[in-house]
Specification:
This protein folds into two domains: 34 residues; 100 residues, Beta Barrel (OB fold (Dihydrolipoamide Acetyltransferase, E2P)). 28% of the residues lie in helices and 32% in strands. The chain contains two helices and seven strands.
Length: 146
């Protein structure tokens, strides 16, 4: 009889743990689906430090449900947060190396990873900006390696 009680105890613990994991994971999974970034290929136009926004000309809006918010060959403005924690600010990478928003020159090809701003309807927030080097820049940078 004592063995039966131990088995039921472990089984009950396993079922309870599973139920708790499902209850906790479901809101997190829903949150992550809702906040999935859209990657957009664009040409850099400007950074407005006063308003914390960047403007780009969209080359490829990207995929997913939010991509329809942007139009090819049209300007798009994104809200950015240039400072703060890496978890909340807009990060910038120039050829894979950490950079600053203010250092991106006009006309550069960029990939903007963005989400609709949860606090303001119609506003887009750029989570990450990658500067893409041109073929000429890559050739010049790596000509010594050949």
């Amino acid at each position: 009889m004592r063995i039966w009680g131990k088995r039921l105890g472990w089984a009950g613990l396993a079922v309870g743990t599973l139920a708790l994991a499902v209850a906790v994971a479901s809101p997190a999974a829903a949150q992550s689906r809702k906040a999935r970034s859209t990657q957009t290929e664009a040409v850099w136009k400007a950074f407005d430090a006063e308003n914390n926004t960047v403007t780009v000309k969209v080359k490829k809006p990207g995929r997913g449900k939010n991509a329809k918010l942007l139009k090819k060959n049209k300007d798009a403005t994104f809200k950015v947060k240039p400072t703060g924690s890496v978890l909340t600010r807009t990060t910038v990478a120039i050829n894979g190396v950490k950079g600053e928003i203010k250092d991106i020159p006009e006309g550069k090809s960029v990939n903007v990873y963005w989400v609709p701003d949860p606090k303001e309807d119609g506003v887009l927030f750029a989570r990450k900006i990658d500067v893409v080097l041109s073929e000429e820049e890559l050739d010049a940078r790596f000509q010594d390696a050949e």
